[in-house]
Structures are given as structure tokens and as C-alpha cells.
Write a structure and sequence with these properties.
alpha/beta; Arc Repressor Mutant, subunit A; D-Maltodextrin-Binding Protein, domain 2; 3 domains; six-stranded mixed beta sheet; five-stranded mixed beta sheet; 8 helices; elongated
Length: 285
């Protein structure tokens, strides 16, 4: 099986038949028939049923077509990335992008670098999607003991963010405007150990709260909204994830969260230096 088999199936369905598919693929109708037959032989299933009036996808054909479209879209995207050079810069993040600074970053980048499109990508990984190939540069805020040490990546602290407590709107502590870490010691604190900013080390061992593990920001918000847990997070989350039923309160005595930019040390995207500089400017501003 190769890409031409998948393109042939998609062309037949989109064109409504073998004749139209042959014109779209710039080949002959017998060639289209042979290519489809080869795909069906490779998969061991029938993908299309021909009637006197139309061509109908089988149940297996429906599943294969959906996957084929996704595969071909990914391949086309890969080709665009490879051939566009500096035409697009993907900025990855695990939770919040730049919080309240996100729109400013997007507008300034568009004004100062119009030839390079900026795309924001959320990937729940300790490297913000960098190791997975989802982005060219990432913003990470992981707790120190969970930070990824990988010599393939270069990094720079571009700013700091204060911490806040997230609570259900009807939580007793929500009546207060400012809290301390000790106020949370008798509550259950939700933490994401892979990509979150909060860890048990924020509290002294004898006054540490109970912790509940979650897997990403959506899980974190869900357990807080129902009052099962409270949360501690960077201020960017308070701007990025305003939700009904959840309030944020400033934490007076919590240390700030370093915001780090992470990128490939070897062969970085050409626009990385400009992005790192702009990130630092936005946080300083």
C-alpha cells in the first residue's frame, strides 16, 4: 500500500465514479480500477460496491476512507511544512499559551513578521509538543522536579508568572480575595505531575495537603468545578481558562512560576530567535 492507493479511493468517492477519478488523477479509468483492486487486495476487504447507477462505500470502505483522508491531510501538511521554510512557526504549549499576553504576542508577531504565520498548538506533554514534533518552539511551565532535561533542546527563561488558587465558586475559601498556601493544607489539591506547575514541594512535609492526580487542564478544571479539589496554577491559566463555576484567588506566599521557551538545539526553525526575543519583550512589558 502507498499513498497513490489512498488518493485513488478518495478521488473515486469525491468524483462520484471511476471516470471522474481518472480525470482528477490524470490517468485512465482501467488504471483507477487496478489501483483500487490493489488496495482492496492489500487490505483483504471490499471497499466499494458498484451498482448500475452509483458507487457505494461498504462499511469497511467508510472506515478506510475516513482514515485515508486524515493520512493524506497529514502528508500534505508535512509537505507544506518542509517546503515552506520559514513560512509558518508553530508555538506549542501544554496548558496556557501566554495567558493574558497571548493576543498581544499574536498581533505583534503578525505585524513584525508578516511572512511567517504563527500557529498555536496545545499538546499535553512535558515539552509542550516539541519532542513529539507538534511544534517548532514551546512554552513550558512544569514544576522543577518534572522538568525535562534533554540536551537536544535549548531553553531560556523568558518571564515569570504569579501563582493563583482555583476554587469552585461556592467553596468557603472563595469568599476571600487573597489566600496563602497554608490555607489549602486541609483540602485536596489537583495536580498534573507531567505538565503542571504544582508539586507537593510547595508545602512543608508536615502541612502538605492531600493530592489528586489529573492528566491535563480539562481534567483539572472538571474536578475543581464540582468542588472535589482545589488547584494551584500560573496566572496564565486564569486568563486562558475562565469557566463558569470556577474562581481564581491570588496566592500571597507562593513562589512565581518561571516561563521557559524550549526549542531544538540543532537545526532550529529560522524564526526561533525572533520569537524568543518577542516572548521576552512581551513578558517584560
Amino acid at each position: 500500500m502507498d499513498l497513490r492507493h489512498l488518493r485513488c479511493l478518495v478521488a473515486i468517492v469525491d468524483a462520484g465514479g471511476f471516470t471522474g477519478a481518472a480525470a482528477e488523477l490524470d490517468t485512465t479509468q482501467p488504471s483507477v480500477s487496478r489501483t483500487l483492486a490493489a488496495l482492496e487486495d492489500e487490505l483483504g476487504v471490499r471497499l466499494l460496491r458498484r451498482t448500475s447507477r452509483e458507487i457505494v462505500l461498504t462499511e469497511a470502505g467508510e472506515r478506510v476512507l475516513a482514515r485515508a483522508r486524515r493520512v493524506l491531510a497529514e502528508v500534505d501538511d508535512l509537505v507544506r511544512d518542509a517546503t515552506a521554510g520559514g513560512g509558518r512557526l508553530r508555538l506549542g504549549h501544554a496548558w496556557a499559551a501566554l495567558g493574558a499576553h497571548t493576543v498581544e504576542l499574536q498581533r505583534r508577531w503578525a505585524a513584525e513578521h508578516p511572512a511567517t504565520e504563527l500557529s498555536l498548538v496545545r499538546t499535553n506533554s512535558p515539552t509542550g509538543g516539541l519532542a513529539e514534533g507538534s511544534c517548532d518552539i514551546a512554552i513550558v511551565r512544569t514544576a522543577p522536579e518534572h522538568q525535562v532535561v534533554d540536551r537536544r533542546f535549548a531553553e531560556l527563561v523568558v518571564g515569570e508568572e504569579a501563582r493563583a488558587c482555583a476554587l469552585a465558586a461556592d467553596h468557603p475559601l472563595a469568599r476571600r480575595r487573597v489566600l496563602r498556601l497554608a490555607d489549602l493544607a486541609d483540602h485536596v489539591v489537583a495536580i498534573d505531575r507531567r505538565t503542571g506547575t504544582t508539586s507537593p514541594q510547595l508545602w512543608p512535609p508536615d502541612r502538605a495537603p492531600v493530592f489528586e492526580d489529573v492528566h491535563d487542564v480539562d481534567d483539572w478544571l472538571a474536578v475543581i468545578a464540582v468542588g472535589r479539589c482545589v488547584g494551584v496554577t500560573a496566572e496564565s491559566t486564569t486568563a486562558q481558562y475562565r469557566r463558569p463555576g470556577i474562581v481564581f484567588r491570588r496566592l500571597r506566599d507562593a513562589p512565581p512560576v518561571p516561563v521557559r521557551a524550549l526549542w531544538w538545539r540543532a537545526d532550529p526553525h529560522p524564526a526561533v530567535p525572533a520569537m524568543v526575543g518577542l516572548l521576552a519583550q512581551v513578558y517584560r512589558g
